[in-house]
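Minutes, project check-in
Item: structure for the 289-residue chain
Input as provided by the requester:
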Amino acid sequence: MRDLLATGRRSFSFEFFPPKDDEGERTLWQTIRQLEPLHPSFVSVTYGAGGSTRDRTVRVTERIASETTLTPVGHLTCVGHGRDELRSIIGRYADAGVRNVLALRGDPPGGPGAAWTPTPGGLSYASELVALVKELGDFSVGVAAFPEGHREASSVEADAAVMRAKADAGADFGITELFFRPADYVALVERCQAAGSAMPIIPGIMPITNLGQIKRFAELSGREVPEEVVRRFDGVSEAPDVRRIGIEIATEMCDDLLRQGAPGLHFYTLNRSTATREIFRSLAVVAEP
Protein backbone atom coordinates (compact mmCIF):
# COMPACT_ATOMS: atom_id res chain seq x y z
CA MET A 1 0.00 0.00 0.00
CA ARG A 2 2.86 2.38 0.79
CA ASP A 3 4.29 1.90 -2.69
CA LEU A 4 0.93 2.10 -4.46
CA LEU A 5 -0.05 5.36 -2.81
CA ALA A 6 3.40 6.83 -3.45
CA THR A 7 2.81 6.45 -7.20
CA GLY A 8 -0.34 8.56 -7.01
CA ARG A 9 -2.55 5.68 -8.11
CA ARG A 10 -5.94 5.48 -6.42
CA SER A 11 -6.66 2.73 -3.93
CA PHE A 12 -10.04 0.97 -4.04
CA SER A 13 -10.58 -1.55 -1.27
CA PHE A 14 -13.20 -3.63 0.54
CA GLU A 15 -13.60 -4.51 4.21
CA PHE A 16 -15.38 -7.51 5.67
CA PHE A 17 -16.34 -8.41 9.21
CA PRO A 18 -15.43 -11.81 10.67
CA PRO A 19 -18.18 -14.44 10.33
CA LYS A 20 -19.61 -15.84 13.53
CA ASP A 21 -20.07 -19.40 12.27
CA ASP A 22 -19.40 -21.70 9.34
CA GLU A 23 -22.49 -20.54 7.43
CA GLY A 24 -21.37 -16.93 7.80
CA GLU A 25 -17.92 -17.90 6.58
CA ARG A 26 -19.42 -19.48 3.45
CA THR A 27 -21.33 -16.25 2.76
CA LEU A 28 -18.17 -14.25 3.26
CA TRP A 29 -16.21 -16.36 0.79
CA GLN A 30 -18.98 -16.01 -1.78
CA THR A 31 -18.72 -12.23 -1.40
CA ILE A 32 -14.93 -12.33 -1.66
CA ARG A 33 -15.13 -14.29 -4.90
CA GLN A 34 -17.72 -11.88 -6.32
CA LEU A 35 -15.49 -8.88 -5.56
CA GLU A 36 -12.23 -10.47 -6.69
CA PRO A 37 -12.80 -9.68 -10.42
CA LEU A 38 -12.88 -5.97 -9.55
CA HIS A 39 -9.16 -6.21 -8.70
CA PRO A 40 -9.25 -4.07 -5.54
CA SER A 41 -6.02 -2.67 -4.16
CA PHE A 42 -6.61 -4.67 -0.98
CA VAL A 43 -9.23 -6.29 1.23
CA SER A 44 -9.35 -6.55 5.00
CA VAL A 45 -11.18 -8.45 7.73
CA THR A 46 -11.97 -6.67 10.99
CA TYR A 47 -11.63 -7.85 14.56
CA GLY A 48 -14.84 -8.31 16.51
CA ALA A 49 -15.63 -6.19 19.57
CA GLY A 50 -12.85 -6.42 22.13
CA GLY A 51 -10.75 -8.59 19.82
CA SER A 52 -13.28 -11.40 20.29
CA THR A 53 -12.90 -12.83 16.76
CA ARG A 54 -9.12 -12.63 16.58
CA ASP A 55 -8.48 -16.25 15.62
CA ARG A 56 -11.12 -16.35 12.87
CA THR A 57 -10.02 -12.94 11.56
CA VAL A 58 -6.38 -14.03 11.31
CA ARG A 59 -7.32 -17.37 9.76
CA VAL A 60 -9.55 -15.78 7.08
CA THR A 61 -6.84 -13.20 6.32
CA GLU A 62 -4.30 -16.01 5.91
CA ARG A 63 -6.65 -17.84 3.53
CA ILE A 64 -7.17 -14.72 1.44
CA ALA A 65 -3.38 -14.42 1.10
CA SER A 66 -2.90 -18.06 0.09
CA GLU A 67 -6.08 -18.91 -1.86
CA THR A 68 -6.98 -15.76 -3.82
CA THR A 69 -5.35 -13.16 -6.04
CA LEU A 70 -6.27 -10.45 -3.54
CA THR A 71 -3.91 -8.46 -1.32
CA PRO A 72 -5.04 -8.71 2.32
CA VAL A 73 -4.46 -6.10 5.01
CA GLY A 74 -4.29 -7.74 8.42
CA HIS A 75 -6.19 -6.06 11.26
CA LEU A 76 -4.52 -5.76 14.64
CA THR A 77 -5.72 -4.09 17.85
CA CYS A 78 -4.26 -3.40 21.28
CA VAL A 79 -7.38 -4.79 22.97
CA GLY A 80 -6.84 -7.98 24.95
CA HIS A 81 -3.26 -8.54 23.78
CA GLY A 82 0.07 -8.26 25.54
CA ARG A 83 3.20 -7.36 23.58
CA ASP A 84 4.29 -10.98 23.16
CA GLU A 85 0.90 -11.99 21.80
CA LEU A 86 0.93 -9.05 19.40
CA ARG A 87 4.36 -10.10 18.17
CA SER A 88 3.03 -13.62 17.61
CA ILE A 89 0.07 -12.39 15.53
CA ILE A 90 2.35 -10.15 13.46
CA GLY A 91 4.56 -13.20 12.88
CA ARG A 92 1.57 -15.23 11.68
CA TYR A 93 0.69 -12.51 9.21
CA ALA A 94 4.28 -12.34 7.97
CA ASP A 95 4.47 -16.15 7.58
CA ALA A 96 1.30 -16.01 5.44
CA GLY A 97 2.81 -13.34 3.21
CA VAL A 98 0.68 -10.53 4.63
CA ARG A 99 2.85 -7.39 4.48
CA ASN A 100 0.14 -4.77 5.08
CA VAL A 101 -1.33 -4.24 8.55
CA LEU A 102 -4.03 -1.93 9.92
CA ALA A 103 -2.91 -1.02 13.45
CA LEU A 104 -5.72 0.10 15.75
CA ARG A 105 -6.02 0.79 19.43
CA GLY A 106 -9.53 -0.66 19.30
CA ASP A 107 -12.64 0.06 21.34
CA PRO A 108 -12.41 -0.29 25.12
CA PRO A 109 -13.31 -3.78 26.41
CA GLY A 110 -16.41 -2.21 27.98
CA GLY A 111 -17.60 -1.04 24.57
CA PRO A 112 -17.51 2.30 22.71
CA GLY A 113 -17.62 5.20 25.13
CA ALA A 114 -16.33 3.20 28.10
CA ALA A 115 -13.11 4.21 29.82
CA TRP A 116 -9.99 2.80 28.18
CA THR A 117 -8.01 0.31 30.25
CA PRO A 118 -4.87 -1.17 28.67
CA THR A 119 -4.29 -4.91 28.79
CA PRO A 120 -1.60 -5.82 31.36
CA GLY A 121 1.69 -5.99 29.48
CA GLY A 122 0.02 -4.46 26.44
CA LEU A 123 -0.17 -1.13 24.67
CA SER A 124 -2.27 1.97 25.21
CA TYR A 125 -2.02 3.83 21.91
CA ALA A 126 -2.24 3.00 18.23
CA SER A 127 1.05 4.85 17.69
CA GLU A 128 2.75 2.30 19.98
CA LEU A 129 1.27 -0.54 17.93
CA VAL A 130 2.45 1.09 14.70
CA ALA A 131 5.99 1.29 16.09
CA LEU A 132 5.87 -2.37 17.20
CA VAL A 133 4.77 -3.57 13.76
CA LYS A 134 7.43 -1.48 12.06
CA GLU A 135 10.23 -2.81 14.24
CA LEU A 136 9.28 -6.40 13.43
CA GLY A 137 9.58 -6.18 9.65
CA ASP A 138 9.04 -4.30 6.42
CA PHE A 139 5.30 -3.79 6.76
CA SER A 140 3.12 -1.09 5.27
CA VAL A 141 0.97 0.10 8.17
CA GLY A 142 -2.41 1.82 8.09
CA VAL A 143 -4.28 3.50 10.94
CA ALA A 144 -7.78 4.71 11.72
CA ALA A 145 -8.85 8.30 11.01
CA PHE A 146 -11.91 10.21 12.18
CA PRO A 147 -13.48 12.93 10.00
CA GLU A 148 -15.36 14.39 12.99
CA GLY A 149 -12.56 13.67 15.45
CA HIS A 150 -12.25 10.63 17.71
CA ARG A 151 -15.04 10.47 20.28
CA GLU A 152 -12.46 10.58 23.10
CA ALA A 153 -10.47 13.52 21.70
CA SER A 154 -10.75 16.84 23.55
CA SER A 155 -10.91 18.67 20.21
CA VAL A 156 -10.49 18.02 16.51
CA GLU A 157 -7.07 19.70 16.76
CA ALA A 158 -6.04 17.25 19.48
CA ASP A 159 -7.24 14.42 17.26
CA ALA A 160 -5.06 15.75 14.40
CA ALA A 161 -2.08 15.73 16.77
CA VAL A 162 -2.75 12.03 17.41
CA MET A 163 -2.75 11.41 13.67
CA ARG A 164 0.61 13.17 13.47
CA ALA A 165 1.92 10.88 16.25
CA LYS A 166 0.80 7.82 14.28
CA ALA A 167 2.58 9.12 11.18
CA ASP A 168 5.71 9.87 13.19
CA ALA A 169 5.63 6.28 14.51
CA GLY A 170 5.76 5.01 10.93
CA ALA A 171 2.14 4.82 9.72
CA ASP A 172 1.91 4.96 5.91
CA PHE A 173 -1.79 5.68 5.37
CA GLY A 174 -5.08 6.23 7.18
CA ILE A 175 -8.60 4.89 6.61
CA THR A 176 -11.57 6.79 8.01
CA GLU A 177 -14.52 5.46 9.91
CA LEU A 178 -17.86 5.79 8.14
CA PHE A 179 -19.09 9.35 7.59
CA PHE A 180 -21.62 11.11 5.38
CA ARG A 181 -20.38 14.63 4.62
CA PRO A 182 -17.46 15.01 2.16
CA ALA A 183 -16.71 18.37 3.80
CA ASP A 184 -15.85 16.52 7.04
CA TYR A 185 -13.27 14.44 5.20
CA VAL A 186 -11.72 17.50 3.54
CA ALA A 187 -11.52 19.26 6.92
CA LEU A 188 -9.80 16.20 8.44
CA VAL A 189 -7.14 16.19 5.74
CA GLU A 190 -6.55 19.92 6.18
CA ARG A 191 -6.22 19.54 9.97
CA CYS A 192 -3.71 16.73 9.62
CA GLN A 193 -1.66 18.72 7.12
CA ALA A 194 -1.70 21.71 9.45
CA ALA A 195 -0.47 19.41 12.24
CA GLY A 196 2.47 18.37 10.07
CA SER A 197 1.25 15.06 8.63
CA ALA A 198 1.09 14.48 4.89
CA MET A 199 0.03 10.84 5.32
CA PRO A 200 -2.62 9.91 2.72
CA ILE A 201 -6.06 9.27 4.20
CA ILE A 202 -8.55 7.02 2.41
CA PRO A 203 -12.24 7.75 3.06
CA GLY A 204 -14.32 4.85 4.37
CA ILE A 205 -17.74 4.41 2.73
CA MET A 206 -20.69 2.40 4.02
CA PRO A 207 -23.68 2.35 1.63
CA ILE A 208 -27.02 2.82 3.36
CA THR A 209 -29.13 -0.23 2.55
CA ASN A 210 -30.85 -0.24 5.96
CA LEU A 211 -31.23 3.18 7.56
CA GLY A 212 -31.85 1.91 11.08
CA GLN A 213 -28.75 -0.26 10.94
CA ILE A 214 -26.57 2.62 9.76
CA LYS A 215 -27.92 4.86 12.52
CA ARG A 216 -26.86 2.23 15.06
CA PHE A 217 -23.39 2.00 13.56
CA ALA A 218 -23.04 5.78 13.69
CA GLU A 219 -24.15 5.85 17.33
CA LEU A 220 -21.41 3.36 18.24
CA SER A 221 -18.91 5.99 17.09
CA GLY A 222 -20.73 8.72 19.00
CA ARG A 223 -22.14 10.17 15.77
CA GLU A 224 -25.47 10.80 14.13
CA VAL A 225 -26.47 10.34 10.52
CA PRO A 226 -26.82 13.95 9.27
CA GLU A 227 -30.37 15.26 9.02
CA GLU A 228 -29.93 16.15 5.34
CA VAL A 229 -29.15 12.49 4.66
CA VAL A 230 -32.05 11.17 6.73
CA ARG A 231 -34.46 13.54 4.93
CA ARG A 232 -33.75 11.85 1.62
CA PHE A 233 -35.51 8.78 3.00
CA ASP A 234 -38.67 10.68 4.06
CA GLY A 235 -41.75 8.77 3.01
CA VAL A 236 -39.70 5.77 1.90
CA SER A 237 -40.39 2.46 3.61
CA GLU A 238 -39.91 -0.28 1.04
CA ALA A 239 -36.52 -1.97 1.24
CA PRO A 240 -35.73 -1.71 -2.53
CA ASP A 241 -36.41 2.04 -2.44
CA VAL A 242 -34.24 2.53 0.66
CA ARG A 243 -31.47 0.61 -1.03
CA ARG A 244 -31.76 2.63 -4.26
CA ILE A 245 -31.55 5.95 -2.42
CA GLY A 246 -28.67 4.71 -0.27
CA ILE A 247 -26.69 3.71 -3.35
CA GLU A 248 -27.40 7.10 -4.93
CA ILE A 249 -26.12 8.90 -1.83
CA ALA A 250 -22.98 6.77 -1.64
CA THR A 251 -22.23 7.17 -5.35
CA GLU A 252 -22.61 10.95 -5.18
CA MET A 253 -20.36 11.05 -2.14
CA CYS A 254 -17.68 8.88 -3.76
CA ASP A 255 -17.63 11.00 -6.90
CA ASP A 256 -17.33 14.15 -4.80
CA LEU A 257 -14.51 12.77 -2.66
CA LEU A 258 -12.48 11.56 -5.64
CA ARG A 259 -12.89 14.86 -7.45
CA GLN A 260 -11.64 16.66 -4.33
CA GLY A 261 -8.46 14.61 -4.33
CA ALA A 262 -9.14 11.60 -2.10
CA PRO A 263 -6.47 8.95 -2.77
CA GLY A 264 -9.10 6.24 -3.12
CA LEU A 265 -12.12 4.68 -1.43
CA HIS A 266 -12.52 1.97 1.20
CA PHE A 267 -15.91 0.23 1.19
CA TYR A 268 -17.41 -1.31 4.33
CA THR A 269 -19.30 -4.16 2.66
CA LEU A 270 -21.10 -5.80 5.60
CA ASN A 271 -20.12 -9.05 3.84
CA ARG A 272 -22.47 -8.35 0.94
CA SER A 273 -21.17 -7.44 -2.48
CA THR A 274 -24.11 -6.27 -4.59
CA ALA A 275 -24.46 -2.66 -3.41
CA THR A 276 -20.69 -2.15 -3.36
CA ARG A 277 -20.31 -3.51 -6.88
CA GLU A 278 -23.06 -1.24 -8.18
CA ILE A 279 -21.44 1.84 -6.67
CA PHE A 280 -17.96 0.86 -7.79
CA ARG A 281 -19.02 0.32 -11.40
CA SER A 282 -21.05 3.54 -11.58
CA LEU A 283 -18.29 5.89 -10.44
CA ALA A 284 -17.52 8.35 -13.20
CA VAL A 285 -13.84 8.62 -12.34
CA VAL A 286 -13.10 5.09 -11.14
CA ALA A 287 -10.74 4.43 -14.01
CA GLU A 288 -8.78 7.64 -13.68
CA PRO A 289 -5.27 7.50 -12.13
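Outcome recorded: The first helix runs from residue 2 to 6.
No further action items on this chain.
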